Every structure is written in C-alpha cells, then in structure tokens.
Amino acid sequence: MKVGILGATGAVGQKFIRLLQGHPWFEITALGASERSAGKKYKDAANWIEDVNLPDYVGEMTVLECVPESFKGVDFVFSGLDSSVATEVEGSLAKAGIPVISNAKNYRQHPNVPLLVPEVNPDHIELINTQTFTEDGSGWIVTNPNCVAVPLSLALKPIYDAFGIEALQVTTMQAISGAGYPGVASLDILGNVVPFIGGEEPKIAPETQKLLGSYSDGVITEPKYPVDATCTRVPTLNGHMAAVNVKLAKKPTSIDEVREAILNFKNPIADLGLPSAPKQVIKLHERINYPQPRLHADQEGGMQLHMGRLRAAEIFDISFVCMAHNTIRGAAGGAILNAELLFKKGFLKSS
Ligand code: NAP
C-alpha cells in the first residue's frame, strides 16, 4: 500500500520513516510537514536524529504541504503532526477520503474515533463505521494513545479483565525523546528530574478508560475509576516507566492470582500474523530490579510491554512497574501495528 506521513520531519515522523523501511505491506510515497519544510528535499528539511542512516530515496523526496491535494496518490497516511494543527489537517484529509492513522491527541476522545491498542481493544475498530467524514465511508481517523497510556493500558488489561479496577495511582518517569525535538532544554534535564509534564496527567484517566471500555452497537461503555497521576521527566533517552498502584474491585486471594492473570493473558491478535506485533506482548520480569529502560525498551523491536515489581500493596491492593518504548510502542510502532490490524480486517484497501 502507498503510505503518506504527516509531520514527517518530527521525532515521531522520523521513527515512522525508520520503521517502515523494508515493511512487507507499506511503502512511503509522500511526506508532509509545515510550510517551513514544504518544497525542500527531506534531507534538507529534517534534522535526522535516528541512529541509522537516512535512506537515500527518502532524503531525495520533496516535502509536501499537509493539504489533501498532496496526498491524493496514497492509500492512507500516518500522522505525527503537532497537535496545534492536527485537528484541521487530519480532518481535511479524512473529508477528502484519505484514512488517517494518528499519533496526535486531537481526535482521541471523539466518540466515533477508535483509540486503539490492538492487543487491548481490537473490536473498537468497528467505530470507524460510525464516522461521517465522507458519505461513502472512505475517509476516517484512528488514533493511538498517549505514550504513557500505551504501557498502562497493556499492563492493566489482564488485571482489569480478571478483577476490575476501583482506583489507580500512577507516577511516571518519562524519557526525554517523548518531548520531541529539540524537546527539553539540556540545562533542565541533565542530572535532574522535572516533576511536571504539561498536559500529560489529565490524559491518563480518559485514555485508559476508553481503551478498557467495552464496545457494542457503535458505542463504547467506559469503566470509571478515580486516577491520581504524577508525570515526571527523567534523563533517560527512550522508554517511559510508570510505578502503578491499583485498588481492585474483586479482591484476589493472593498476589499469585494476579500474576497468573497476567501470565495467562490471551493476546487477541496473536494469530493474525501482523508484521510489527511482538511475539510476547507482556513480559513480566521476576528479577527484583527489572525492567529498566536501557536494558529492555528495545526488546522485540521496541514493541514489548515490560512489567515487574509485582507485589501486594499496603494502601491499594497491588503495586507494579511497567515500561515501554515511547516513540516505538507508544507512538510510530503502535500506529503501524494499528494500520496492520486495519489492513488485515479489511478497513484499509490498496487502490
Ligand atoms: P515534533 O518533533 O515537534 O514534530 C512535529 C511535526 O509537526 C514536524 O514534522 C513539524 O514540521 C510538523 N508541523 C508543525 N507545525 C505544522 C504545521 N503548521 N503544518 C504542518 N506540519 C506541522 O513532535 P513529535 O514528538 O514528533 O510529536 C508529534 C505528535 O505525536 C504530537 O502530536 C505528539 O503529541 C505525538 N506523540 C509524540 C510521542 C513521542 O514520544 N514523541 C508519543 C506519542 C504521541 P516542521 O519540521 O516543518 O516544523
């Protein structure tokens, strides 16, 4: 399929370009960014920050304006657009009949737009049929969650299914790549921790609740539980970690029952043969000082969710940590997996 990338020059856009090299189903044929970059060769417009060489053919491509006319020849687009422009740009492409698979926050809470993690809520893709961007249904939007909601929802899914959730308390330790490029000033983050990330904490309740919600007849019914979240920026490069406490609706007889629920998680996309899917989606570490971003964020192509420190808790019922690569599982890689699921399920069709 022919694929365009919106926001191709940014940190997430570059990760799309990198991850799509050699992809068996998707080929990049159009790149878009702001007016600052449009008209330039990609190699001149982008400050390439990936640690592999920029593919020559991509470097020679001309960056396009993010308007529907630029993407007429593609089958769908990925979006790594800045949220200040994503509502208008993504909406205009969908209205022009071009499916949009987005990383931006703008449409995540729209009642007709799936917020998708394939291993958590693959059935939510049916919401696409309720969208009205085009009369014939050819243009639609699917989003993936915030880079912290991804590891959280993957970790909470087996726990929620087995025990329900009454309350959640989360403290995150988020890598600097999550702030895009140039991101956080070096003088703020080197040898330091910044105990606030603008706009991040309010996303955790609505995004995990939508992801864990049940789909029926075009509507998602969401579980509602109170969430206390503190989001911090730490001087790691990749891999967002969260320390999580959960009050469960149904009390387990022991922590081993919770461990069993996680280990026995049935991955709903395990048999679909999606190229970017990790073989083992949840890795529960038993070693007391695991997981660690530097050791584990890149495992299984950066698509695995790592859990550890699972234990009974004193105030709530259970505590654990979870961690996933924020620009792969939490952004571009997650969006590519979404596109693979949508292709497999017949929502994406090549022209
Ligand atoms: P970034 O590095 O700042 O890149 C932003 C991109 O948007 C650039 O390609 C930029 O093009 C483009 N852009 C800015 N203004 C534009 C305009 N007026 N018209 C068209 N394009 C415009 O940001 P990022 O970290 O890649 O994040 C991209 C999106 O993904 C954001 O919505 C972010 O919240 C989301 N996200 C990021 C992460 C992460 O870990 N970084 C994770 C999940 C979701 P120019 O280069 O031409 O300015």
What does this structure look like?
With 351 residues, the chain is α/β, with parallel strands linked by helices. It has two domains: 2-146 and 332-344, Rossmann fold (3-Layer(aba) Sandwich), CATH 3.40.50.720; 149-325, 2-Layer Sandwich (Dihydrodipicolinate Reductase, domain 2), CATH 3.30.360. 26% of the residues lie in helices and 21% in strands. The N and C termini lie close together (8 Å). It binds NADP nicotinamide-adenine-dinucleotide phosphate (NAP). NADP nicotinamide-adenine-dinucleotide phosphate is lined by residues 7-13, 33-34, 36-37, 66, 80-83, 85-86, 103-105, 147, 177-178, 180-181, 326-327, 330-331.
Question: What topology emerges from the helices and strands here?
Answer:
Blueprint: E1 2-6, H1 11-20, E2 27-33, H2 42-45, H3 56-59, E3 64-65, E4 76-79, H4 83-95, E5 100-102, E6 141-143, H5 149-163, E7 165-174, H6 186-189, H7 201-212, E8 214-216, E9 219-221, E10 227-233, E11 240-248, H8 255-263, E12 282-284, H9 293-296, E13 305-312, E14 318-324, H10 328-344
Parallel strand pairs: 1-2, 1-4, 2-3, 4-5, 5-6, 7-10, 12-13
Antiparallel strand pairs: 7-11, 8-9, 11-14, 13-14
The chain binds NADP nicotinamide-adenine-dinucleotide phosphate.
Residues 7-13, 33-34, 36-37, 66, 80-83, 85-86, 103-105, 147, 177-178, 180-181, 326-327, 330-331 line the site of NADP nicotinamide-adenine-dinucleotide phosphate.
